[in-house]
Amino acid sequence: MDKLTLKAMAKINLGLDVVRRRPDGYHEVRMIMQTVGLYDRLTFEKTKDDTLRLESSMKRLPTDGNNLIIRAASLLKEEFGIREGLSIRLDKRIPVAAGMAGGSTDAAAALTAVNRMFDLGLTEEQLKERAVKIGADVPYCLQGGTALSEGIGEILTALPPAPACHVVVAKPPIHVSTKWVYQNLHLEQVTEHPDIDGMTESIRQGDYAGVVRRLSNVLESVTVPRYPVIAQIRDFLRENGADGALMSGSGPTVFALFDDRQRARQALDALQKTGLAAQTFLTALTERTCVEQD
Fold first, then answer.
1. One of 11, 92, 128, 171 is an active-site residue; which one?
2. 218 - beta bridge partners?
3. Which member of 17, 40, 106, 137 is catalytic?
4. Active site (annotated) includes residue 119
5. Among residues 10, 142, 141, 67, which one has the least CA distance to residue 75?
6. Pairing of strands 27-47, 52-56
7. Residue-level pLDDT at 289
8. What is the mean pLDDT of residues 204-229?
């Protein structure tokens, strides 16, 4: 295989709780991860020289070893002594620094591509073992679908598909540092934690109302006071027919769930007129893997 094009799917967090801060500085989490139908497109092509080259449609993204795509491809290339190179083209669609695992899912695509194109024969579990070295969300991005994520994000339990619904995604014109959010999370001051067990049970029962009722993200307690536009978007979507709305990950992206596509479209159109969001999308939950051949 000399050329391969993959879709790298975005994620949202239907629930996100932080359990504790470990002595090594990492935070242990309990999260409900969910793939949505928003994706980056990556094209990988073999080259004869021993180099990795990355070209991105978003010019401000790094294309060297600071990009997770290059780090992921390099990890397998070095481990297995691969002497050929890759020319990689990234068509960036997932919002950047947005709490949707855009960088992590691109890294998962790179791991998948190198594994397939060079016939390494690694299983998904073997890829996950390597993926956590790149980032805590990368193992999930290899798995996709609906999952309970624990530990630092690498302990994954697959769940049945969440109830089908339509999703409005809105990113305000700001960027949020995940590192800053976790540094400013003071767990001793958190009085209410997301009901992750209840969310899990609602998903298992196919209870859409139960899922909506339990949408919760403990990181909103940090990000929203610093960036009020997040709450403005979230509340606007709720007021315009969303069954529920929440910040994804460490933010600033907000997603809203609707059981009716027309109502979702109307809310999206209304939001676009406010100017609160720089990027907006109408998509849906999906159980497809985060990395899928185009």
1. 11
2. none
3. 137
4. no
5. 67
6. unpaired
7. 77
8. 97
Determine if residue 56 is labeled as part of a ligand binding site.
Answer: no
Whether 95 has a binding-site annotation, put simply, is: yes
| pLDDT per position as a tens digit, 73-123 | 999 999 999 999 999 999 999 999 899 999 999 999 999 999 999 999 999
Q: How many CB atoms lie within 10 A of CB 251?
A: 27
- Whether 137 sits among the annotated catalytic residues: the reply is yes
Q: State pTM to two decimals.
A: 0.95
Cis peptide before 252 (omega within 30 of 0): yes
Q: Predicted confidence band at 294 (pLDDT cuts at 50, 70, 90)?
A: low
